[in-house]
Amino acid sequence: VIFELLPANALINDINMALINAYKHIRNAPEAFLKAVSKLDTEMWDDGKEYYYSLREHYNDKLMKAEYDVELAALFVFINKHCFNGLYRVNKKGLYNVPMGKYKNPLICDEKNILLISEKLRQVKIECGSYKQCLSFVDAETFVYFDPPYRPLTPTASFTSYTEGSFNDEDQRELAKFVTEVADKGALFALSNSDPKNVDTGDNFFDELYEGYNIKRIGANRMINSKGSKRGRVTELLISNF
Asked: Which of 12, 20, 63, 113 is the most exposed place for a label (fewest CB within 10 A)?
């Protein structure tokens, strides 16, 4: 969304510090980032699986020490390109625990694209924290896109967490209140989430929560499932005030 619109005055914010660290290093020091990623790629052992898990352990060690440097940014991208379905998931301790995926020749880092991204991000303010801290940035000239942790479609569908914190139904309700604050400022917004009607046609959680706003159901590919037969087309929600 940010690269499609890229207004002159833009802000991106996320609660995941490792993600924000990667964005900041790509923006501020793309050459150092590319060098660090290339080093990880060229040093890969013959036993790729053992190498992946050794890097995952090193990545978690740096997370626990809060070492948000260029090496962590490179590890973030490298591991993401080798893990199962590009999933980012941590346990309650905040440790990344996604197993290795099966790829023949994954593209780890597109140098030309990284340099272009770095250039574009120079006009973007990047923050890490709660979405609530962004309210002061919003006015009647603002468009806000929300991409919260999706509500699990079934009790067992949750993949643990995107960060060490959880995001339950009460958090979804709290977000909806914030969305109303944004709308009351005259801003336009769009919000994505899962569609509970994929598994329960009587589940009106979001239809009731965002009553009065536009709710569209759009097709999406389900990729994150351990069983290939369970992957396919589903609907997701796109909620907006326009």
From this structure: 113
- Supply 215's token pair: 């709710």
Which amino acid would we find at residue 203?
A: D
Across 192-201, b (16+ Cβ under 10 Å) vs e yields: bbbbbbbeee
Q: How far apart are CA 155 and CA 184, in angstroms?
A: 34
Gap between the Cα atoms of 148 and 84, Å rounded: 21
Q: Measured in Å, how far apart are the chain's first and last C-alpha atoms? A: 17
- Is pLDDT above 90 for 156? no
Instruction: For residues 7-35, give the mean pLDDT.
Output: 97
- Spell out the SS3 assignment of 164-183: CCCCCHHHHHHHHHHHHHHH
Residue among 168, 210, 171 nearest 189 (CA): 210
Averaged pLDDT, 146-153: 93
Task: Tokens for 242, please give them.
Answer: 């326009």
What pairs with residue 214 in β-bridges? 240
Q: Say how far residue 14 (Cα) sits from the centre of its chain.
A: 8
